[in-house]
């Protein structure tokens, strides 16, 4: 019998099926950093900007920084590294909770503001930028969590800020930012091909340093993340659609309580994502498996994925990267299972990295669709004790398989 958190109070998290208690994780983070917020003034190293969305087009623009100079400040905004090194939720919460969001108000089309210029330098820099900050009042601890973005610590209104070191901006980044006749799409793809990761590119987009000169503007961080994932994956699709079809492949893997079963069918490109919340898991207090889903056919989709939202585009980017590596295309059914382990939302980067980890595992190969679907049902039943038959029956992708005519049919 599971014991409610209100009774357990973090003494025995195994009772609720988690490896840690989300309540105590938040409070432990608070006590670790509470003593660091001693005054309105501090010297820090900012690894990232933060662009809010409320009040758009007049929004909060923030510069994230621990309240002291740290050589490892970059680690506070490094989702790819967290995934590679298997960071756990409490570790990530500790890192993010110590970031002060020193913020000010700005209009999204503003170009000449000094504070905005510093924010753009932070977004463009390859390494954290040393800053001297003066706030209007002492920050008060508050852990802000969001399903789109990594958590942040306290907010505080900015009075004055000064850069105390020369920002290290890569020559290729400077080249793209300086080219005011280059589309933002082309700038993102150029830098991505040169090895800059999606997290860095979303920061560039958010601080308004990409695109035609008269169209540059601030983009809220949560919007820029999805826009970057969408742009990069869409740009790869024309090439991927020319590849031959792959074999029937099943990949299974996980990260931070997010489990993925990814099924490649030997067909032309299409993609469907089911995000399933296991019974009694986060956001699903019922005893039944709950899910949301979105789909696209061979030519993609024109409307926003309203159901799975940002997670849809993170997974599509991981799929596009994998198919480009394989030089194969497929119809891909992705089943995400969210367990109680994922007790604190950490942002859509988790889904991107969990999908990448899954696709890096060795796949199970099948000779046909029927065998692969039978395997999928048995695997999920054994692993989570749930029957996914009703989900498969609802799948648009599975209903459409085989309906796309091949060139040979017209010969």
Describe the overall structure.
By secondary structure, this protein is α+β, with helices and mostly antiparallel strands. The protein folds into 4 domains: 1-33, no CATH class; 34-163, OB fold (Dihydrolipoamide Acetyltransferase, E2P); 171-239, no CATH class; 244-410, no CATH class. It has 14 helices and 12 strands. Helix 2 (22-34) packs parallel to helix 4, helix 7 packs across helix 9 and helix 8 (198-206) crosses helix 9 (221-240). The longest helix is centred in the middle third of the chain and has 20 residues, at 221-240. The radius of gyration is 23 Å and the shape is globular.
Layout of strands and helices, then pairs:
Elements: H1 5-8, H2 22-34, E1 41-46, E2 48-51, E3 58-65, H3 79-84, H4 89-97, E4 100-107, H5 114-124, E5 129-135, E6 155-163, H6 171-178, H7 184-193, H8 198-206, H9 221-240, E7 248-255, E8 258-265, E9 270-277, E10 290-296, H10 310-326, E11 331-338, H11 349-360, E12 364-366, H12 369-384, H13 389-394, H14 396-400
Parallel strand pairs: 4-6, 9-11
Antiparallel strand pairs: 1-5, 2-3, 3-4, 5-6, 7-8, 7-12, 8-11, 9-10
Helix pairs in contact: 2-4, 7-9, 8-9, 9-10, 10-11
């Amino acid at each position: 019998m599971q014991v409610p958190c209100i009774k357990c109070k973090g003494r025995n998290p195994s009772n609720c099926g988690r490896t840690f208690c989300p309540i105590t994780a938040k409070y432990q983070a608070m006590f670790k950093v509470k003593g660091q917020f001693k005054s309105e003034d501090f010297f820090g190293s900012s690894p990232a900007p933060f662009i809010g969305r409320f009040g758009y087009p007049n929004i909060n623009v923030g510069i994230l920084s621990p309240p002291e100079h740290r050589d490892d400040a970059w680690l506070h905004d490094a989702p790819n590294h967290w995934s590679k090194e298997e960071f756990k939720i409490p570790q990530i919460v500790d890192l993010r909770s110590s970031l002060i969001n020193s913020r000010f108000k700005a209009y999204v089309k503003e170009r000449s503001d000094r504070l905005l210029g510093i924010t753009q330098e932070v977004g463009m820099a390859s390494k954290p930028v040393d800053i001297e900050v003066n706030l209007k009042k002492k920050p008060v601890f508050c852990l802000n969590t969001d399903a789109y973005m990594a958590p942040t610590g306290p907010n505080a209104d900015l009075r004055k800020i000064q850069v105390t070191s020369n920002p290290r901006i890569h020559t290729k980044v400077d080249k793209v930012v300086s080219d005011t006749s280059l589309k933002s799409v082309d700038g993102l793809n150029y830098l991505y091909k040169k090895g800059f990761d999606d997290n860095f590119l979303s920061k560039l987009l958010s601080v308004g340093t990409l695109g035609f000169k008269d169209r540059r503007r601030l983009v809220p961080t949560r919007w820029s993340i999805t826009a970057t994932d969408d742009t990069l994956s869409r740009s790869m699709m024309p090439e991927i659609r020319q590849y031959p079809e792959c074999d029937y492949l099943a990949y299974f893997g996980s990260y931070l309580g997010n489990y993925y079963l990814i099924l490649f069918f030997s067909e032309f490109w299409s993609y469907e994502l089911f995000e399933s919340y296991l019974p009694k898991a986060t956001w699903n207090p019922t005893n039944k498996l709950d899910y949301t889903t979105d789909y696209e056919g061979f030519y993609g989709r024109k409307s926003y994925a309203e159901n799975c939202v940002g997670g849809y585009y993170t997974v599509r980017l991981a799929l596009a990267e994998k198919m480009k590596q394989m030089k194969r295309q497929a119809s891909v059914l992705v089943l995400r299972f969210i367990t109680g382990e994922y007790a604190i939302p950490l942002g859509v980067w988790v889904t991107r990295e969990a999908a990448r980890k899954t696709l890096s595992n060795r796949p199970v190969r099948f000779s046909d669709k029927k065998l692969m679907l039978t395997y999928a049902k048995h695997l999920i039943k054994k692993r989570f004790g749930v029957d996914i038959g009703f989900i498969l029956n609802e799948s648009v992708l599975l209903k459409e398989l085989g309906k796309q005519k091949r060139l040979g049919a017209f010969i």
